[in-house]
Amino acid sequence: MIPSFSALSSALIGVCVALLAGCAAGPAHPPPSAELSEAAAASFKHQAGWQPMPSQPLASTAAWWQAFGDAELDRLMQAANADNLDVAQAAARDRQARALWRQAGAARRPQLGLSGSALRTESSSANGHNSYAVALEASWALDLWGRLAREQDASGAHVQATAADLAAARLSTQLNVAEQYWRLRVLDQQLALLARTLAAYERSLTLTRHQYDAGLAARADVIQAETQWQTLRTRVHDLQLQRVQHEHALAVLSGRAPVDLSLPAMATLLPAVPVAPVQLPSLLLTRRPDVVAAERRVAQANAQIGVAQAAWWPDITLGATGGGTGPRLGELFQAPWRYWSLGPTLAATLLDSGRRSAGVDLAEARYEETVAAYRQTVLTSLREVDDALATLQQLAAKAEQQARLVALAEENERVVTTRYRAGLVGFLEVVVAQNLTLESQRTALDVTAERLVASVRLIAALGGGWQGLGAENG
């Protein structure tokens, strides 16, 4: 007995489904090795003596900046997270990647279409006639060789990479906000220091004028005192300009025009430098968004090798069509005008002059490029963490030395001023002592600023508050 066409089609579909479940092109994706030495994987170079602060687990919260305890910084961070345009662009790219992933998934499922036509034909040798047609068409690309599956894998890895890119954009913005804010706050401290110093210089100028009037000081002392006072007044304008520039930068980071943001001067004391928890380099590879994004791009490139390899095999599409065609609309679904068809379609390239082979080579070369880029990103991340650790260690020691220098300079200024009042020294020694005190105090503030910035950079180098792709997607 000869089997019917329906039975043959059912058998063909069953075989195709079985093959579809068992075939896949391309290599599997083992996570790429960072090729770190045993010492590099175990600890950072400048981690010795660096203890985490258990009361403030920065790595367990997205709002890591709250460890500084500054309400204004918190408001600026919230505005930047919501309105920063770099973050908005990264979020749009993330949505694009998710849409492409859905498109890749839809290509693996059956497609259904409807078409219709109405034609009027006229000729010189025959009377005109009408022709109507309607058809319902279904198709399913049988992914026997895994090409479509690999395309979806590549799109999925791209989605994860863009999600990590979005987290990296947020972290970069947060880092910039924190840096600009602390530099602005330190400028407020510098301006407050200059205001106090100007008052002290003005008192010295008044004293020198009185001594000059009494014949106890030379005219040169008065000129020198006034020159010192005027020079410091000029420096105030430089600091004010720097403050304006930092304020403008914060406005743009918050998604606003400079005219829409005005931060009042804050002369309150700067916060203590928080201690960020230092973790193993192996954990850094899963928490730092740019490293995760680089690894996901390796997975994407690996899947693209499978797509290129599957191009060697023929494409098989199972199609079904049903409809009607006839001279009148009312007869489209009546015999003999009805028709249907069902069957597979095979398409294969027999000669491409090396195009597919070149495609495989291209995909493999791109994979090797992404692996190298991943390893470079890992090394860069380790360098940034160690840079921040080394900077904090050196700045902590420098801050202690600078505090002693400030104390000595202030004591020297008090002694020299007393000797000047007693007429034992000239005003030049007072000028030197006052300038030494001012510069030592300004340097101390600069060191504090650099310590705050370095602590922010360490937190960012450790991944900020991002917990990885699971937290991002959850």
TrEMBL record:
It comes from the Bacteria. Pfam families: OEP. It is found in: Cell membrane. It is a lipid-anchor. InterPro entries: MdtP/NodT-like (IPR010131), OMP_efflux (IPR003423). GO terms for cellular component: plasma membrane. Residues 1-21 form the signal peptide. GO terms for molecular function: efflux transmembrane transporter activity. The keyword Ribonucleoprotein does not apply. NCBIfam families: outer_NodT. This is Efflux transporter outer membrane subunit. It comes from Aquabacterium soli.
